[in-house]
Design a protein that fits this description.
The chain is 41% helix and 25% strand. The protein has helices spanning 10-13, 20-32, 46-59, 77-85, 93-105, 112-115, 153-172, 190-197, 229-247, 259-270, 284-290, 308-315, 319-325, 330-344, 392-411, and strands spanning 2-8, 35-42, 62-66, 89-91, 119-121, 125-127, 136-141, 144-149, 177-185, 207-214, 217-226, 251-254, 274-278, 299-304, 348-354, 369-376, 379-386. The radius of gyration is 28 Å and the shape is elongated. It binds adenosine-5'-triphosphate and magnesium ion. Magnesium ion is lined by residues 9, 44, 67-68, 75, 151.
Length: 425
């Protein structure tokens, strides 16, 4: 089954609102094995909606429209749909009753405009809104399905769960099997990773592989499709073996798992405690680590020591060392990590210091220069990273990712000098 999504609303095409319905629907549809071929956003304009409907109904098996279904002047979807099919609209008593109940249970008074939600284009099936007042509409013609749903994201989702998903599942039967797997890497660029893992073309068309890069790492997203579950599973197992072998020590976890979540498991499993002293990451490591539920089991404390004075007062970094070497330097990063480990009595301590930019760079110490240190039971490792000029936010995220990866590699007894987005030798 192939699908087009049409989202309707002036606010979606003039920059006032981001269309989240398409992304949400597309993810659910692909999980069902429905291929989304096209997604289009349109303003609240009847002619444009009619044109798009005509194109979609001529071009594909399933059309899902969201938005502009309300009863007010600016909502043009229902009239456009009725005009496209050349039909009138009829008032449906059950919908009117549901709208009255909706208002009554909220202590709100109803207006004639609200009651117009009960108007349904002739020849359409309808479904009461589980969350609001606009009903969902369905037209089935020549084996093609047209769903028309409200734009309010919560209502659209409620219709999906209540109505579209079971109906589509029923139509699709179990002919289409679709299985997905995630693999997480960090510290390696997309093209270097591609050179090591490849495209899995020989496993296609059963298997497709997507590389999804972010500041934190590259996730690999594998989809297996087919008619025969054991065959799909076998192809996925082949893909997995190749991905895990190819991504080496840059691979850290299977599934939809963040680096911090993975690290949490590693620390908890070994009974280890962590302290963090941050300068250039400005608390991002503290945020990332405390986003993991149960972080207090393994996270002891964090400092944001932004000034030179705080590095000295809180972590015992000698003022003379900072004066001689500069705050962004190998010895200061080392002293921060060792000071944090000593102050806290933790097994491991991470420290970050760097030049996030856009100002503050010099030829010797350019924007994007970061020193990260990890002090642990076997001593302290300090590394120098050149992250480049990618904006403050990105530099903070990259430094946080590199710091977590440095710790991961030490905890898991992997090479701590690999990673950091340096090309594999
Ligand atoms: P109703 O009038 O019954 O609320 P409706 O179908 O007319 O339903 P809209 O007026 O189009 O809905 O949109 C309602 C709200 O949902 C608006 O705030 C709108 O910006 C938002 N919205 C609509 N479509 C989308 C979309 N595709 N993605 C994100 N938000 C959306
Ligand atoms: Mg609208």
């Amino acid at each position: 089954m192939r699908c087009w999504i049409l989202t309707i609303g002036d606010e979606l095409i003039n920059g006032l609102r981001v269309d989240t319905n398409t992304a949400w629907l597309a993810a659910r549809l692909s999980d069902l094995g429905v291929e989304v071929e096209r997604a289009v956003s349109l303003g609240d304009e009847e002619g444009a909606i009619r044109d798009a409907l005509a194109g979609a109904l001529a071009g594909t098996d399933l059309v899902i429209v969201s938005g502009g279904l309300g009863p007010t002047q600016d909502d043009r979807t229902k009239p456009a749909v009725a005009a496209h099919f050349g039909v009138g609209m009829t008032r449906i008593p059950e919908i009117e009753e549901a709208v009255r109940t909706f208002f009554a249970t909220r202590g709100r008074s109803i207006t004639p405009v609200n009651l117009d939600q009960a108007l349904v284009p002739d020849g359409f099936a309808w479904h009461i809104n589980p969350r609001g007042t606009a009903p969902g509409l369905l037209k089935e013609q020549d084996g093609r399905l047209l769903f028309v749903l409200p734009g309010v994201p919560g209502e659209m989702r409620a219709f999906w769960h209540d109505w579209l998903e079971p109906l589509l599942q029923d139509r699709l039967g179990d002919r289409h099997i679709i299985r997905r797997r995630w693999f997480q890497t960090t510290g390696i660029g997309e093209s270097d990773l591609f050179n090591r893992v490849g495209g899995l073309e020989d496993l296609a068309p059963t298997i497709t592989l997507a590389y999804l890069p972010s500041a934190w790492g590259v996730a690999l997203y594998v989809t297996g499709k087919g008619e025969d579950a054991p065959a799909v599973e076998a192809a996925l197992a082949q893909a997995e073996a190749r991905i895990v072998a190819g991504s080496g020590d840059w691979f850290f976890a299977r599934g939809d798992v963040t680096l911090a979540e993975h690290l949490a498991g590693q620390l908890r499993g070994r009974g280890l405690h962590l302290a963090v002293a941050e300068s250039c990451t400005g608390g991002l490591l503290a945020d990332t680590l405390t986003n993991v539920p149960g972080a207090s089991e393994w996270l002891d404390r964090t400092w944001v020591t932004y000034s030179n004075r705080s590095k000295t007062e809180e972590l015992g970094v000698p003022a003379e060392l900072i004066a001689a070497q500069g705050a962004v330097s190998e010895p200061v990063a080392r002293a921060m990590a060792e000071g944090a480990r000593q102050q806290s009595g933790s097994d491991f301590a991470l420290a970050t210091t760097g030049i996030a930019g856009p100002t503050g760079g010099t030829p010797e110490k350019p924007v994007g220069l970061v020193y990260l240190a990890c002090a642990g039971p076997a001593g302290t490792v300090v590394r120098r990273y050149l992250q480049g000029e990618n904006g403050r936010r990105y530099n903070k995220q990259r430094a946080a990712a590199n710091a977590l990866d440095l710790l991961r590699r030490l905890v898991e007894k992997r090479n701590p000098f690999q990673g950091g987005w340096e090309s594999p030798g």
